[in-house]
Structures are given as C-alpha cells and as structure tokens.
Amino acid sequence: MPPKKKSKAAPVEEKADIQVPDQCEVDTVNMDHYNALEKAIQTILQHELFEKIMTEEPLGIKAGVESHLAGHKAVFVEEVFKAAMSTAGTYDASCTLFWLNLKWSAAPKVPVSRSSVDRLKERLFSNGPQRFDKVTVVAVSEDLVLNRGNLRRVSPEEPEHAFLFALSEAISRGQLAGQPASWFLNGYDNWDLRQYKKVILTTTFVFEILPTPEKMFFRGVPFLLISPADFANSCVPGLSYRILFLALKLSIAMAWRDKGLD
C-alpha cells in the first residue's frame, strides 16, 4: 500500500500591521503641495540675501544695532541645550527656521490644506513679515544629537509653509519687475526682505525628547484638539483634517493594543 501523501498545511494568513507613517515614505497625498514648497524654497535660496541662510546663526539680543540685526530671545547654545534637556526635558531658544527639515511631517499621510496655508499667509503676512504667533516644537532623540537642516518639527507645519510662500512671492515680485537681485536688495523692498530674514533667524524652537515616530506622531495630536473659540485663528486646516488625524491615531492605538504594546 503506497504511503499516504502528506497534505500541505494551509498557509497562515499574517495580520497586516498598522504602522505609524514613516517619514521616509513618499508622501503621495501631499506631493503637489511639497513640490510647490520646494519651488518656493529654491526661489528663496537663489536670492543673494538668503543664499547662505542654511549656515547662518540665529540673531541674539543686541543693543545699538538696526532692528533687523537683533533678536528678541536668547539664542540656542549647545551646552545650555544639553543641560536643560538632561534636567528639565525641554529647552526653548531662538533658532534658525532652516534648521528644520521643512518637508518632513510627523503625520505624512494626513493632507496639508493648501487653502489653510493661503489663509494663514494672508492673515499673518499680508502686511509684511512678522514673528510666528506660535512656537515650533522640535523632536529630539535621547542622545541629544541635533542634525541642523534635518530637525523634525511635530507642531503644525502650515505657519512655516505660509511664511515661505509669502517670502518667495515677495522675491518674485521684485524679479518680475525686471530688476536684478542687487537692485532688489538695496531698493524699495529691501526693508521687507531683511525683516523676512530676521524672522528666519529668530524662530523660537521648543525642544522635547521624542525619540520614536510614534511619540512624534502622538505629540502632534494636542495641536488639533483646540477649542472652537481658538479655531478661527488657528493654523489647523479644518474639521476634516482633525477627523482624519484622530482616525489615524485611533487605528494605531488599536494596533498597539492588539500587540500588547499599550
């Protein structure tokens, strides 16, 4: 009697993991927005006033200088940063906007509302540059190593994007007038551009230890949970944005619960 053939075991269907969006993923949801943002950034960096902005240091508090050469807050100091983070777990200081990775998001699959960015641009910068009305919260790893130019902001990105679009448009207005960059630097809009540069070099960062994508993701949730009274003047795009963000939060929390990670 021939031996019976062993039946193959049915393949075990693996349960798909629900993961926090990875910052390395291509954010197809916001591709058009980030392409427009990259174009604005390149317009800024190609102007001679901003061509070295990536390596310039923040402006400190100074006396006896023109206003565009002085800040309003103590500047970032590495030793003070490490001391404050190791004892208090947080540190705030005047930093440079371009220390951020401006196209990184803690929630890359959540749509960025371009209409909200445009509304912010009109509300905050229609009369020229001014300081951000909210601080920028930046994630820090446990080893306290900072990679300038690639810092990760967990607060809403819309205010910074609105600022960059406003600055790019200010530069383009001068170029469209048929004037060279050197004229534009010393001409009619010279004051405005220098004030834009001051905003870049005096942006307040609040550093917090958020070593994982999950912690970064969840830290951003409170920025969406605001009162209706604050909503009209908020940088949060809209109710649909908040619902989507919180739905992502809930799905991840459920996945962690299933894995016993809560």
Q: Could you give the topology of this structure?
A:
Elements: H1 31-45, H2 78-87, E1 90-95, H3 114-125, E2 136-140, E3 152-153, H4 158-176, H5 181-186, H6 190-200, E4 203-209, H7 213-219, H8 228-231, H9 239-258
Parallel strand pairs: 2-4
Antiparallel strand pairs: 1-4, 2-3
Helix pairs in contact: 1-4, 3-4
Structural overview:
Helix 1 (31-45) crosses helix 4 (158-176) and helix 3 (114-125) packs across helix 4. The protein has one domain (28-217). The protein has a four-stranded mixed sheet, covered by helices on one side. It is built from nine helices and four strands. By secondary structure, the chain is of the alpha+beta class.
